[in-house]
Each structure stands twice: as structure tokens, then as C-alpha cells.
Amino acid sequence: MSNQGGSPVPLLAARDLVKAHGRTEALRGASIELAPGEILAVTGASGSGKSTLLHCLAGIVRPDTGAVTYAGERLDRLPERRLSELRRTEFGVVFQFGQLIPELTALDNVALPLLLAGTSRQQAHATAGEWLERFGVRGQAELRPGAMSGGQAQRVALARALVTAPKVVFADEPTGALDSLASEQVMTALTHTARESGTAVLLITHDAQVAAYADREVQLTDGMVEALGVAA
Amino acid sequence: MIAMSTRHILLGLLAGGPSHGYDLKRRHDERFPQARPLAYGQVYTTLQRLVRDGLAEVEGTGSDGGPERTAYRATDEGAAELARWAGEIAPPAPFVTNEIFAKVVVSILSGGDPETYLRAQRTAHMARMRELTALKTAPGGDLATVLSADYALNHLDADLRWMTTTAARLTTLTAEVDAG
């Protein structure tokens, strides 16, 4: 068993990733593994390369060198079309804020990925309503993001990330803009739902109390991953 | 440093109505799940002192079919003392005698390896924080458990912040020494 993975057969793995932004190397040989259904926290100081690592793993940017493997496929070599299909069907993404479409209601925001995948409007709305219910924001279904609290908007964003039943959710500082109680609600909703549905989560955070919701933690230091022990 | 006051906690538990020693011990351990369980001897000694100081009095003795038990209740003076203590500001403790702090300082003084120690300590802290988080977010958790887990989590988090800053300072110091 690898010292950086929770399973001998990872769902998602990166080897020796290097990625530079201009002359700054954000990743300098980072390797990481995510097992199916595992909730993994990636922690580290600002500028340690956490978000760049997430972008490479989610197929949003390609590394300069190194390999990203998802379910046996070399993600870093896939054509853009196949990548965007994967991002739509197998991956869910949640950022710190701002990802909901401000003109749409909570229900329409959550239904959107299903509509894009060809689900009927009626079915998409029914499924979206169920997901809002699971995240305790059914009462906000007809509100637009601007009329919701930060914690409510973030739970709607989680519902949208999970509505397509993805294999992996990438969450980049999902509670970064929330107070501690709202943060607790968001993290409890995310981790309970992910564990129920067997969805793996890659959780980027600088907050140890948020990282404590994960099964395991790895720390990024200067663009390299340091394993901090596998959870018992 | 002011120790956690068993007498005030017992007075607080008596505020809900008369109670006997066994019941007080059981309720204490339920309400303060992260604290060390109270010993029966400590409960009875504390109750006797409360009576001696006029803060509690014997309500009556009954057996209820089992062993004979003495029930106690708080007096008006007891209620006033409880209110005074509950509103009294606790001194913000500096915690400078913490074991983690001592180990790092000793390690620096003796030319040891504080970075390795800090990494291992972080792993242990995170493992405990995961346990507490699971406890806190388990369905049906009662308020006392949640509050107590929150308290422990925030203190462990404070340790972690200090350890992270210290690890960064040590790296900077080492770099300066190497460059010099």
C-alpha cells in the first residue's frame, strides 16, 4: 500500500505533478491518491499549491509534467471534449463562493446540470427538489442566490455538485466565507451525503477544524505533498 | 490558575431541584462527557462542605426500596453563590506551561528535532479532532456532547495553529542560520 493513498486501487491519482504559473512553480512534484468513496483533506499555507493541485486533478488545467489518472484513464492526455464530459458527469465542483447563477432560483441552479445532460424539465426539477431537501434548503427553492445566507447558498451549491451522482466532488475552501456554525452545517451535509452515496471528496482547506471532517489529511508544502498518517 | 469548581457544578445541578449524591454523579458525568468522571467520595465530601458553608441543606432521607439515600437541595445562599460564580470573569489563561510548548523549547535548547516532533504531534491532534468531529456530528447527539466537543476542538485547533506557526518559524530560522 502506498504511503499516500487510502486504497491499493485509487480512483484518482497524481504522480510527480509540476505546474508553473509564469515563473512561479505552484506544484513541484506533487503526488497524491484518492480512493473510491474516500474523503481526503488537502491542507497547507496560502500559496502552497492547493488550488492548483485541485485544478489539475479535476481536469480544469493540465500539469506541465506528471500524470493524472482517473479510473484508469490518463486525464492529462484526454482531449478537451472528453474532459468536459467527465467534468459534467463524473465530477462535481464546489468553490468558496460565487458559483451559483445569480439569475436562477435555487431549484433551477440545482436542476441545471441535469437539464444539460438531457433530463426532462419535470424530472430535473423533481430530483433537484430532493437534493435541496437533503441539504435542508428546500424552503429556499424559489429564492435567488442573492436572497439566501452564505450557508444556504453553499448548501445549494453542494446540492448542485452532487445532483448528477458524481464519483468525485472537488471542494475548494467550501466554508472559507462562512461563520463556524454555517461551516459546520455545510461540512456535515457534505460528508454525510458523500458517505451515504459513496462519493469521494477532495477537500481543500486551510482550516484544521474543516479538515477534521475528512478520513485522512495530506499537507502541501511548497508544491509538494507530505503525508500525515492514514486514519485508523 | 483557578481549578474547575466541583462545588459550583454540583450547586448548578442542584438548581434543577433536590437530588442525592448518586444522581448528581450520574448527571455530572452525562453533562460533562469529556471531563473526568466524578468519584462518589468526592461528591459526598463536596456536598458535606456545601452544607457546612450553608450553601446546601439536607432535604430528607429515603430508601425508595433500595439503599438509604440522602437528598440535598441548594439554599438561597447557594443559589446566590452559584449566580456570582457563573457571572465571574475567568482569567484568560496563557497556558504557557503546556507540555507541547515545553517539548519544543527543550528540543530547540538541546539541539533536537522539533520539526519531526511537531509533525507527529499534528497527526495525533488531527486524529483526535476527527474523533471529536464524528462524535459532534453523529445523528441524535445531545447538546452537552456537542458543546463539550466544540470546546475541545477549538483548543486543539489553537494548539495546531501555534504548532504550524512554530514549524514555519523554525524553517525560517534554520534558513537564516544556513545562509549565515
Automatic annotation (TrEMBL), chain A:
Pfam families, alphabetized: ABC_tran (PF00005)
UniProt xrefs under InterPro entries: AAA+_ATPase, ABC_transporter-like_ATP-bd, ABC_transporter-like_CS, ABC_transpr_LolD-like, MacB-like_ATP-bd, P-loop_NTPase
UniProt entry keywords in alphabetical sequence: ATP-binding, Nucleotide-binding, Transport
SMART domains found in the cross-reference section: AAA (SM00382)
PROSITE patterns documented for this protein: ABC_TRANSPORTER_1, ABC_TRANSPORTER_2
Glycosyltransferase among keywords: no
UniProt xrefs under Gene3D superfamilies: P-loop containing nucleotide triphosphate hydrolases (3.40.50.300)
GO molecular function: ATP binding
Name the record gives this protein: ABC transporter ATP-binding protein
Taxonomic source organism: Streptomyces lanatus
Lineage: Bacteria, Bacillati, Actinomycetota, Actinomycetes, Kitasatosporales
